[in-house]
Write a structure and sequence with these properties.
The complex is a heterodimer. Chain A is mainly α. Chain A is built from 14 helices and no strands. Chain A has one domain: Orthogonal Bundle (MetI-like fold). The two termini of chain A are 44 Å apart. The radius of gyration of chain B is 25 Å and the shape is flat. By secondary structure, chain B is an all-alpha fold. The chains are: A mainly alpha, B mainly alpha. Chains A and B meet through α1, α2, α4, α5 and α6 of A and α1, α2, α5, α6 and α7 of B.
Amino acid sequence: MSQAARAGAVVDRRVRKPWPETWVAAAFIAPAALVIVAVVLVPLARAAWMSLFDISLVRPGDEPFVGLGNYIEQLTSGDFWAATFRALWFTVISTALELILGLGLALLMDQPLRFRWLLRTLVILPWALPTIVNALMWRWIDNAEYGALNALLTQLGILHSYQVWLSNSDLAMWMVILADVWKMTPLVAILLLAALQSVSPELVEAAKVDGATTVQAFRHVLLPLIVPVVLIVLVLRTMEAFKVFDIVWIMTGGGPANATQTIAIYAYQTAYQGYDFGRGAALGYLIALVIMVLAAIYLRLLGRVGRD
Amino acid sequence: MADTTARAGGLRGGAGRLPGAGSAHHRPSLATRVRRLGRGTFLYGAMVIALAVILAPFAWLLISSVAAPVDLLARPLQWIPAHIELDRYVNLTVGSTLDDSAVSFRAALVNSSIIASSVTILSMIVGTLAAYAFARLHFPGRSWLILAFMATYMLPPIALILPLYQIMSALHLRDTPLALIIIYASFVTPFVIWIMRGYIETISSELDDAARVDGCSRLGVLVRVIVPVSAPGLVSTGLLAFLMAWDEFLYALIITQTNASKTLPVAINDFIGRHGVDFGLLATGGVIAALPPVIIAFVFQRYIVAGLTAGSVKG
């Protein structure tokens, strides 16, 4: 008998026969799975069922089965599409701005500048502010009578008279986007900076030695290497932005005149202000559908990046 | 593990990438020096602007929270208030005159602390167990199952709130902190699994094998070997879990009704409805609600950044 086999025999005698690995895994995963099944899968199934009925809390006891009626009604409703396009508008503009500004900020934080540590330390502040506090802060800054934005722009001579921001249906969405961009750009910058730092400095040096300008070195050396991270950030932010609720709810409540009523606000108002749970559930499913498509793209990207 | 901490360390330190400012042997030409000066001016200018944009809004919130009402409503606006008042801070936290807003705000502070801490502890235990299984054990359907967990993490709350509202009502759990703890655990746990699985995979499995040979069970390996070795990862993940729970609004808006369970975001939402024009009070409430996450973010910045990048950059 070899040395190793004898050692194994000793271990076998000391330890009870171990469980098959699948059982161990099941036991380890069971608590997490229990939470998910109870709080996600059961409600999800129930929501699917609810969405097939016309459930209105103002008519208790009268809940006729309508099949896919709620879905068809939403998909043919102007309000639904208007809210969807508002959410898309918010998503595209804020994500684009966050990516562009975030990349700029990341490149800036990557330069060998004095006091760079100050920027790298403070950049996390907007991200750390709770969403509700951020919304409240911008609501106050954008106040038409006493807000800091009007005061600043007037004192700088950019505006001649005070402007109405949040109660102006042409501007309200832009103000919400501004608040979101202020909060989320630092996160994008932090993620992109990590990506930039994983690129070996010698690569850029080598390109410069070969006569590349700074812009060329960025375009042809850095950018291709950080593209995977940019893609992931893009999909992550898109998913978050499309279901935006908190920041809009606190800043404008979806107004004025529904100008900032995104799809999540619309669903919330349908369910809880219209007491219409059947339609609300159908709307929830439609939103989840869009998010799941984005999530599938995200997971594929992650899988691809993980394999590299 | 080394990977994660190195990233975080790199964010603070990190050697510069650009060539040094001129070599010692020959003076750079005038054109080069002018170009460098222009470049430096641009970069430092950009940095000053970035710092101003990052700091100004929050600075204004801080100033508003201590400015006397007269100064807040002054036109033209006074950037530096003539009168400083700390009454609102005292009123909302330790003061003895308990008006409605003080009572509800303090209750919310307690509720948010209890809920966020409980969610963090629960999700870290349950999530780390599962993460270990996903990182180390072989079983059928492993990759499929972790994708399923991640998919539930990404579901929008708006799709789940209606049935959750009814289920919690039926179980008489509505308006209790417990309801929010359970609900938050459902989206924090998959996040913990995702980050911790990645983290555990960076730990050499020879450590596991050695402990197994010494007679450790799988659970023993996790508790005695993996947990101590992955302490930095656990801190990163735990802090982010806490911040996620502290920040949540939509579920809380639906599930809570009274001071028994209202969290800070809901309390602030109520403030806006009740004291829509008392900007000073709103600012004070906002600053207090922001303090725990802001302090955590600055004190544990390396861990937070490591966790954020691990969550989306690494697989």
